[in-house]
Specification:
Length: 287
């Protein structure tokens, strides 16, 4: 039976460290880190994510601001809110919860490009993705950064390892591959058009899965003793949440595995807090 990579435990440590650093920053006369979150529409999953981000802000001693726009607010209103937050020096981090409502002509990419790169705590702006691809990042995207932190905490080195990333999204798959590469892994990215997928995934010393398909990775796709990281969050018809990995059977074969929930999810939010603290320190010339 595999060891658990517990996002609950590791995120609690990370949040504790952010809380300590925040208290020190404020005690030394710095301003309280402030995160502004924009939510367009009323998607229930997005509402939960936004609420969790605010709770994490409270936990680490940040100020958090929430801006709710109605589903029909429109791209122009959204961009003008972003501009206002860019210009507000007391706001250090700005993010717009994705996805934006479908069928209303929102342009997610334009919103990501509108956020000031120095306040871009999601690290979705092309300036920040460009720096990451050059191996000189300013902010790291939260989910891949959380995966790296989970591996680091378990003392699982990536140098020289075969890392296989399943999924090529801009939010997870691509930046995940870049981070593993920066850590000197040999990296393969697989996606929906990959042939002989199981042959490739079985080579992986570390298999990182972000495909958005419930229990897609089965035990026959995994090497004995592999490290399996499941980024997926899928809601089943019975309301339960499961990952992209068939946990029960894969855990028999893997050496390490992340649970869902309680694996990558809490790490993503903890890394968002780290990025916001970093943005606040950068703005105050303290990083
Ligand atoms: N939607 C899913 N993941 C994310 C994320 O990391 N940031 C934002 N802003 N929206 C998301």
């Amino acid at each position: 039976m595999a060891n658990l990579l517990s996002g609950k435990a590791v995120s609690a440590k990370a949040l504790g460290s952010v809380a300590t650093q925040t208290a020190e920053l404020v005690a030394s006369g710095g301003s309280q880190p402030t995160l502004a979150v924009i939510l367009v529409g009323e998607d229930p999953a997005s509402q939960i994510y936004v609420r969790n981000k605010h709770r994490a802000c409270e936990q680490v001693g940040f100020h958090s601001l929430e801006f709710k726009l109605p589903v029909h607010a429109g791209q122009a209103a959204l961009l003008s809110r972003v501009e206002e937050l860019n210009a507000n020096a007391s706001v250090h981090g700005v993010l717009c919860q994705m996805p934006l409502p479908k069928g209303y002509d929102y342009d997610e990419s334009a919103v990501q490009r509108a956020i000031s790169p120095g306040k871009d705590v999601d690290a979705f702006h092309p300036y920040n993705t460009g720096l990451l691809s050059l191996g000189m990042p300013q902010f790291l995207p939260c989910t891949p950064m959380g995966v790296m932190e989970l591996l680091r905490d378990a003392a699982i080195p990536l140098a020289g390892k075969e890392v296989v990333v399943l999924g090529r999204s801009n939010i997870v798959g691509k930046p995940m591959a870049l981070l593993a590469l920066a850590a000197d892994a040999t990296v393969t990215i697989c996606h929906s058009r990959t042939k002989a997928l199981a042959q490739i995934t079985r080579r992986a010393d570390v298999l990182i899965v972000a495909v958005g398909k419930p229990r897609f990775v089965t035990a026959d796709m995994v090497q004995e003793g592999a490290v399996v990281v499941d980024v997926g969050v899928n809601r089943l018809s019975d309301g339960k949440v499961c990952g992209d990995v068939d946990f029960d059977t894969v855990a028999e074969k893997a050496a390490w595995i992340t649970p869902v929930p309680g694996g990558c999810g809490p790490m993503t939010i903890a890394m968002l807090m780290q990025n916001t603290l970093r943005a606040a320190k950068l703005a105050q010339g303290d990083a």
